[in-house]
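Sorry, can you check?
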Amino acid sequence: FDVERKGADTRIDVCCAAKPGLLLSTISTIEALGLEIQQCVISCFNDFGMQASCRE
């Protein structure tokens, strides 16, 4: 995964093998860090991919 932070904005890119519950776990972790997802693109075909733009 890759995280890029600029001021109050954070961009998160994740790509890994798909596992049941991974999406819920990822979203829960982002929220637990105090980030609010502003925009998100998710792919769950052969692997799991997510690009999220977040704000504190």
